[in-house]
Design brief:
Layout: H1 22-81, E1 97-100, E2 106-109, E3 112-113, H2 121-130, E4 137-138, H3 139-146, H4 152-169, E5 183-186, E6 189-192, E7 198-200, H5 201-217, H6 221-234, H7 247-273, H8 277-290, H9 295-307, H10 311-329, H11 335-345
Parallel strand pairs: 1-7
Antiparallel strand pairs: 1-2, 2-3, 4-6, 5-6
Length: about 375
């Protein structure tokens, strides 16, 4: 028989068995390390962002101060270079009577207020004459305007009573008892006394506007801006707002309001050109307060807010525009407005837009 081979001994692996908890611990340590590194990196980025925000805030503050100085310099430059540049509005030493017709009627003789609100129809005579202070008004025209559909004899008596009250209202402690009244009757017409220097905000408003237009047409835009600013500041409200339904005020009121809106548009375009988006937006919002269906103004507001990085507000102006047009006019936005809305929605850069922005309205 062949001898049976002795069994060979089995080799045992002497390496230690892996710990069942070692792998999860390594994974946990690695994950914790990753979290710490991520948090450190985020903190560094946040710190850098805060530093950038502080720098931007400082830059914005400096630009705001510079803009304020520039506006003051513009006015000073215009006054130095233009002998007709606007100074103080209605200085008390230069006029005897000041009449303010924008908004509620107010009037002054010297420094003393004239109580026209208690003067009844006498105040209507002052208002009618103040619309064009250097133009005499025929008695029949005045009677028809203030007492329409009234018998001539009755209207004439009422006019006499109103004139008596008017003379009493214009009597102040500084008046010479022998002097003539503020309103005279000559050659069948009523007019302001030529010997009394009468200033009205209407006349000054139109003078400032016309001077600004003349300068702008001559290529002197910087000199024109102070005149537009003065005219804008005089417009305290619509003409004789307490007489909104008097027929003799309607045409003149709309003429002056159209001029005011044109001035606001010119100023807003100018502020936009020099980078003052805040004042540009405020001017265009004033236009919408008077004329809420100006779709071109909505587009300007959409573009300005988009350029300021306020995309949500720009889109909100589109919604306001669409709602106003639909509710009041039963119309939808124009294709140009819709296209602009789509561009803003898509996040496109519209800073290069020149169709509606950066161009002053033609005088």
């Amino acid at each position: 028989m062949r001898p049976t081979a002795a069994p060979q001994p089995q080799l045992v692996d002497a390496r230690p068995l892996p710990d069942a908890q070692s792998q999860p611990e390594d994974t946990a340590h690695g994950g914790l390390r990753l979290v710490v590194e991520t948090m450190t990196r985020l903190e560094q980025q946040a710190q850098a962002s805060r530093s950038l925000i502080r720098q931007l805030a400082d830059t914005l503050e400096q630009q705001t101060e510079t803009l304020g100085r520039c506006r003051a310099m513009l006015r000073q430059l215009a006054q130095q270079s233009d002998p007709h540049a606007p100074r103080d509005i209605a200085p008390a030493t230069a006029v005897n009577v000041r009449i303010y017709c924008f908004g509620p009627l107010t009037a002054y003789r010297g420094q003393e207020a004239i109580p026209l609100r208690r003067a009844g129809k006498a105040s209507a005579i002052v208002k009618f004459l103040a619309l064009r202070p250097h133009h005499p008004v025929q008695r029949d025209v005045l009677l028809e305007a203030i007492w329409p559909q009234t018998q001539p004899a009755v209207a004439n008596n009422r006019l006499k009573v109103a004139m008596h009250h008017l003379r009493q209202a214009f009597v102040t402690k500084d008046c010479n008892p022998r002097c003539e009244g503020c309103v005279l009757f000559r050659d069948g017409c009523y007019l302001f006394n030529p010997d009394i220097n009468v200033w009205t905000d209407i006349e000054q408003f139109e003078k400032s506007w016309q001077t600004g237009v003349g300068l702008e047409r001559a290529g002197q835009l910087i000199q024109a801006i102070p005149h537009y600013l003065q005219a804008e500041s005089l417009y305290r409200g619509d003409l004789l707002e307490e007489d909104a339904f008097e027929e003799w005020t309607l045409i003149r009121r709309e003429e002056l309001k159209d001029t005011y809106l044109t001035i606001l548009d010119k100023l807003s375009n100018y502020w936009l050109q020099i980078g003052n988006l805040d004042d540009a937006i405020e001017g265009w919002k004033k236009i919408l307060a008077k004329d809420p269906w100006r779709e071109d103004i909505y587009r300007r507001l959409m573009e300005c807010n988009a350029r300021r990085g306020q995309r949500g507000l720009a889109l909100r102006w589109y919604e306001i525009c669409a709602q106003a047009l639909q509710t009041q006019l039963n119309l939808g936005p124009e294709p140009e407005t819709v296209a602009l809305h789509q561009r803003i929605l898509a996040g496109e850069d519209i800073s290069d837009s020149s169709q509606t922005l950066g161009v002053l309205s033609a005088p």
